[in-house]
Amino acid sequence: MEDVAWVPRGAKNPGRLVGALQRHNPAATIASRGCDQDCSFCIVPFMEGDFKPLPDFPVLPVLCDNNLSGLPAEYQDYIVGRYQAEGVPLLDANSGFEPRTFSSAVFERWKAINKGVWRLAYDELIERDFIREAMAILRSAGVPPRRIQIYTLLGNEPYDACMQRIHEVIEWGGEPFCQPLMKLVSLTRDPHVKHDWTAKKLRGVARWANNRMWRSVAPRFEDYDPSIRRAPRARYDAAQGLFV
User: Which terminus, N or C, of the chain has the lesser number of Cβ atoms within 10 Å?
Assistant: First the structure.
């Protein structure tokens, strides 16, 4: 298996390397495989199918499940209970929550352990009402924008539709994290170009959004100068406990 993964002999604390995921990131774990959404642009349905619980998962700070809010409520309770029982903080629910199934009950359940950002996805305009309601739940609970990060897929819809989603995320009190569309089977990380996009524009919009250029440097992508790689350093707001 040397062409797939390599673990050095004599590595410290080998007991923590309990699976392939921990060999990639020793702080990462997964409590379920699969997803029930069957999105055409996502590899998970093709590789993993529907939900499969992994109840013996190691409790670690980075949780990589594909869709936490789509899991049965009793299994969500089980995951949260495992974290509480072992006293491990959840620092990153990495793939996050599905807006169609995110509710006040889901928020109340997970806020007991989630110490990191709240991640959801706004991949298509047909999800507009779901993501707006999910973000409203978070904002009404006092979650600041820097802790509401919305995966925003680029390229699966025309340019104007994708930019609408980005600006709506900002308007509704969150921050977009843009991911250019890729083919499900690809040997490179090159974007998959569709509609009125180009590979250059896909990368440019992602850089503009993910480096938060919209906050101060260029509120619109059309005003963005690609030679500017990063926005000015954020100011620390002690009241929020965040850089703003």
Answer: N
> How buried is residue 208: exposed, middle or buried, by Cβ count under 10 Å (0-12/13-18/19+)?
buried
H helix intervals, the chain: 20-24, 44-47, 73-86, 104-110, 128-140, 159-171, 199-210
Q: What are phi and psi of 178, to 5 degrees?
A: -90, 140
| Three-state secondary structure call for residue 66 | coil
Q: Is the pLDDT of residue 243 over 70?
A: no
Q: Which residues pair with 52 in a beta bridge?
A: 33
What is the per-residue pLDDT across 105-149, written as a single tens digit (0 to 9) for each?
A: 999 999 999 999 999 999 999 999 999 999 999 999 999 999 999
**DSSP track, 178-240:** EEE---SS-SS------TT--HHHHHHHHHHHHTTGGGTT-SSGGG--TT--SPPPPPEETTT
